[in-house]
Give the backbone structure.
Amino acid sequence: MSSQSELVWLFGEFAAVVHVAIACAVTVHVLLYKRNVGAAVSWIGIAWLSPFLGALLYVIMGVNRVKRRAQRLRRERLSFGTAEESLAEAAADDPLTPLEFAVGRLTGLPCERGNKVELLHSGDEAYPRMLAAIAAAEKSVGLVSYIDYDRTPIPENNTFYALLHKRRSFAHEQELRAVTQFTTGPGTVELTELPLGIMVPVDVPTLVESIVVAPYAPTSYKEMVERAVHDAGYSDLHVTQSRMGEAPLF
């Protein structure tokens, strides 16, 4: 027997031993945690009849991670028992301490100083305050609504509504628009004093998939756009000409 044949034989023996060890581990795990007899027999068979692949499939698909996560959460909840006892003591000094703890658990964010809570007893008190806060907003971020101007009026109770509505013919844009209001004090503000916009850094290749030139634009215009894109450092950005001007096939 040559040295190469011996090496192959040794590798085969080693792989067989490893397979048996892994299959035994899977079998023990299945017998301990699988209640369904059919599923247990199936996973044991797959582990033994499919070397390595069967064990990998069991780790990916057979292990009940939902149950393991529930057990971990149960342990965490037990650890919070001590925290809840301390909360009961702190609530005697500050009634908002349990609320602070609950908000922190729900949002994962710490409470900031300088905030206050005012209790509003009914909708008669809550809704006017809410509508006044919306009307006094200086910044608004939202999806543009595309409407038929001949049938749907733009609401007039908020100055941002007119800037967040467009004609339905532009619905393909699916635009997300951020609007901010600049104030310099009482009185009117000259438009020439306002900034043209706020520069926000973006990843252009992620934001723009391709550039489509108008269907009836001359070839020279498309080439000019390609040169401008290349000079801007976006050589991988594809520039095409719209085919909407082509004649139909029928």
Q: What stands out?
A: The chain has four domains: 8-63, 68-111, 137-193, 204-241. Residues 8-63 form one domain. Residues 3-33 form the longest helix (31 residues).
